[in-house]
Amino acid sequence: MGSYGNSKKKPFIALIIIIMVFGGVKYLKLTDYLTLSYLHTNMHQLQTIISEHYVSSVCCYTVSFIVATAFSIPGSSIFTTAAGLLFGWPGLLYALLSATIGATLLFLSSRYFIGSWVQQKYAQQLLGFNNEIQEHGHHYLLIIRLIAVLPFCLVNMLSGLTLLSIPSFISMTIFGLIPVSTVYIFAGKQLSKLANPDDFFSPPVMVAFSIFVFFKVALAPAVFKIAKRMVKLIAKKKGMSVKKSGFVHNLVLVKNRAHQKQV
Question: Do 117 and 158 belong to one domain?
Fold first, then answer.
């Protein structure tokens, strides 16, 4: 009982920490530095510092990116673009490493502060879901990372609420981030060639983003398949009949049963 009582306090502690961090970021106006305009304006000065203190600059970049990701501070795309602008293609490695470490820290924090409480409180309700995640969770995470539709920090936090293993989270995060990170690194390299940051979406950058969008569209059937599996899982848990080829029908059944319970 004491352990459950302590776990109930963890979400409130996490909320206080998040409020303090965002308050500090807002007060110090740190997000003012996470803009394409700022990067482009100070590009030559930053590149000079990097050429003179390369290792220290890489360490400073990675630590900053890790902290920003771990505390869900907006700007992961800017950090990755900055890596391309300042470090070139080696920046892809630095960005992937930083984003993965930061995401893992947020994943573990979510599991510790909120996930343990959710799993204890809803153990029976989550039994089928947990089995599905343990068996196919790494595939789901990889697809979600590749399509890059949900906010990065949200995926990290929600993953922490599940029983997805740490190795699976780390490996799928690395592989899932490679396509979108490559596009942003390329965009950062193009930014260094522009006289005006407002011309960021130049033809080469637009082509790169178009290829990535096409890649995301190609993954749509896989996303639909995941949605079908999850709806069937929920319907089965609630004791409802499931049609093999009726995704919309199954979704309506789930919604109606939930509405009836509320009434």
Answer: yes
Q: Give residue 2's pLDDT.
A: 47
Distance in Å from the first CA to the final CA of the chain: 32
With a pLDDT cut of 90, the percent of the chain lying above it is 29
Q: 72 and 153 share a domain?
A: yes
* Closest to 152 (Cα-Cα) out of 104, 118, 193: 104
The number of beta carbons lying within 10 Å of the beta carbon of residue 193 is 10
* Backbone dihedral angles phi then psi of residue 170, each to the nearest 5 degrees: -65, -50
Segments forming the whole domain that contains residue 260: 220-263
Confidence at 254, pLDDT banded by 50, 70, 90: very low
Task: Confirm if 31 and 25 have CB atoms less than 8 A apart.
Answer: yes
Tokens of 244: 């093999």
Residues found in the chain: 263
Confidence of residue 26 (pLDDT cuts 50, 70, 90): low
What is the per-residue pLDDT for 10?
66
CA angle 59, 62, 66 (to 5 degrees): 135
Measured distance CA(51)–CA(49) in Å, rounded? 6
C-alpha torsion 182→186→191→192, nearest 10: 110
Rounded Cα gap, residues 3 and 21, in angstroms: 27
> pTM, whole model, 2 decimals?
0.74
Q: Are residues 9 and 68 in the same domain?
A: yes
Query: Does 226 lie in the same domain as 209?
Result: no
Total domains present in the chain: 2
